[in-house]
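Could you help me review a protein record that somebody else here produced? What it holds is a sequence and that sequence's fold in token form. I need someone to confirm that the token line plausibly describes how this chain folds. Take the sequence as given and treat only the tokens as open to question. This is what I was given:
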Amino acid sequence: MENKIKASFIGILPNMSPEETWETLEKVAKIGYRATENAFRYCQLPGASFEDNLKHLNDIGLEAVDVGIHNGEALRKTGAAELIKNVHRLGVDKAVMFHGAAYYRKGGKVVTYDEVMDEIEFLQETALACKKEGVKLAYHNHDHEFTTYFAGMTVHDMLLAYAPDLYMELDVGWVTYAGLDPVKTIERLGSRIALMHFKDFLPGGPVKHTVPMLDPELIKTYDMPNFCSLGSGVLPVHDCLKACLDIGIDVVNVEQDFAHVLSPLEILTADYLVMKESGLVY
């Protein structure tokens, strides 16, 4: 088969019983998806062991992609050794931290230079420990990494400069929402990208949406992109896929933070068909 990209997904599906989850995952695999970033959670479903659930997932036709961890606080609590153990247990070679310090500006938190640099230094130490065990630690961006500046540098550029062993899970939806060109950003980051998130949003400005925040002091409702299925909004999906293929990315994770019209399976179907239509996804 010529060089193409696997379709993967994260989130989108609601919480369901184990039986409903497995039935739905079979439907997702039949759509055409070959991987999921939710694998560690699915492997912890009750009714079977972690290893049997992983086999079940693989038998359905879905591969694991990585081990995710919520934020820096959770990563410090877990520690590099436990994270590496979980990565090896899942049979993958990547881990992702989903929320950095800059993210919490969404809830109205004041984020300081010292706080960001402390997190970056910690991430570099953890990334180096992971690297020694054959694991790539990646950082998932939102918009604030590209719109928060200290001494003339964005937080994202600080991560690249001061954590040289840290990779990126580049979310091109948030890159676009931050006002940057997603294709040029993929090209600029190149080999620093370990994983990709594709999400799309409608033009016309943000909408108010309620998102749980860990800190009860932070506001819960704030401006968010008006998310939609791929190809329905502003993201140049095909150009982004081509840029990913050019730098050697072999899996793309689709995500939609909240739904407003389509059902989860409809979203996943629309996303997959738009990507497949490019001829770059099998």
About this structure: The mean pLDDT is 95. The radius of gyration is 18 Å.
